[in-house]
Amino acid sequence: MLIHFIFGLIWVVSRETSSVFVIDHKEGKIVSRVNIGQDLRHAVIKFRGKNVFLLTRDGYIISISSDFSVADKIKVGESSIGFDFICDDVIAVANYQPGGVVILNLKDRKTDFIETNSRVVGIKVFEKGGKTKLIFSLMDKGEIHIYDVENCRPKQFKKLSVKDVIFDAFLYSGKYIYGLWKKGSVGVLNLEDLSSHFVSYGRGEQLFKVPHFGSWAEIAGKIFIPNLGIPYIVQLDVSNLQYKKIEVCSSPVFVVSNMKNYLAVNYSGECEDVISLLIFSEIQGEITGRKDFRLGRRILHMRFFDENPNLMIFSSYFEDRVKVFDIEGERVVREYEIPTPSGIFLSE
Question: DSSP assignment of 222-266, as one string?
């Protein structure tokens, strides 16, 4: 039961009902509704071993048991925005309020606090060669802090001063790629030698970075970055820091990929009911086509299935529906009725 409880399920945040709906896609049915009772705006769900953890916007880490009930609820902040695992039983939580990072031991429920005097974003854990680093950004100070982790505890750290407002980050192949608020640029921090480079693609345009969700996409060493307010996404080649602008429908919010040959983009504004599918050619190393599909009413989030990269699931907020879209057949093949669905998380 525990194995089935974790793997092969779809977890959908129902924002206004303060609950999480659980879908067994193979069976084609909703198997549970977990009542959370907290603020689920920008809620994040992660899976570790046989456990399911949810971070609420109002600062609670919640563990969900195999009978789909709340097993534990621990207060870690007033306004929390992201978390990652330092070890199996130790979580690092990034806070807007009161700022700083909370280190939570799940076994004894004890917490330690890293004071920053700043909102914290872009929290990531990087593991390589038996060594672990904790990385996060200070939004109000324009700094990146890199901690060495020893015995599941952050120890000595190094600081990189960016002198700009950092907003969100993406971890890829030993690189910490961070966005700059209201700037048409990203920074690329090499976690091996802590060298940092900037890529400026805005040319004077005021570009807003995407909301916190970690939903930048990657295919074949190319990172795809959306910008709110400007009708294009950026393709960044991590190996040489060359970029291309890719025109899309309107103001992109999230871009996700199936890690193979498709990307999906959703929008705010005039195209909020549209999902754009971008076709990626690995031979040419670039986007070769785009198709727009009007599939719902305010589409908030999307995911591709690992086990079938030609299937995509997405939430249609104002329709109270979660839908599964067959890319090759270009049609919706399944729908689930869920009130005010937003974030989608797959435990494949």
Answer: EEEEE-BTSSEEEEEETTT--EEEEE-SSEEEEEEE-SSSEEEEE
Task: Respond yes or no on whether the N-terminal peptide bond of residue 98 is cis (omega within 30° of 0).
Answer: yes
- pLDDT range class, residue 94, cuts 50, 70, 90: very high
- Using CA atoms, how far apart are residues 193 and 206, in angstroms rounded to an integer? 31
Cβ atoms within 10 Å, residue 329: 10
Residue 147, φ and ψ in degrees, nearest 5: -105, 135
* Per-residue pLDDT tens over the stretch 152-183: 999 988 999 998 888 888 899 999 999 887 77
CATH assignment of 76-161, given 2.40.160, 2.40.10, 1.20.58, 3.30.710?
A: 2.40.10
Work out the burial of residue 299: count CB atoms within 10 Å of its CB; fewer than 13 is exposed, 13-18 middle, 19 or more buried. buried
Does residue 269 sit in helix, strand or coil?
Answer: helix
On whether the CB atoms of residues 167 and 121 are closer than 8 A, the answer is yes
Which among 312, 319, 324 is positioned nearest to 338, based on CA atoms? 319
Split at pLDDT 50, 70, 90, the class of 100 is: very high
The pLDDT value recorded for residue 213 is 47
The distance from CA 20 to its chain's CA centroid, rounded to whole angstroms, is: 17
Q: Where are the alpha helices (DSSP H) in the chain?
A: 2-6
Position 304 pLDDT exceeds 70: yes
Domain ranges of the chain: 76-161
CA–CA gap between residue 151 and residue 36 (Å, rounded): 32
Q: How many CA atoms lie within 13 A of 116 on its CB side?
A: 29
- Alpha helices, DSSP H, located in 71-206: none
Question: What pLDDT is attached to residue 200?
Answer: 85
Does this model's pTM top 0.85? yes
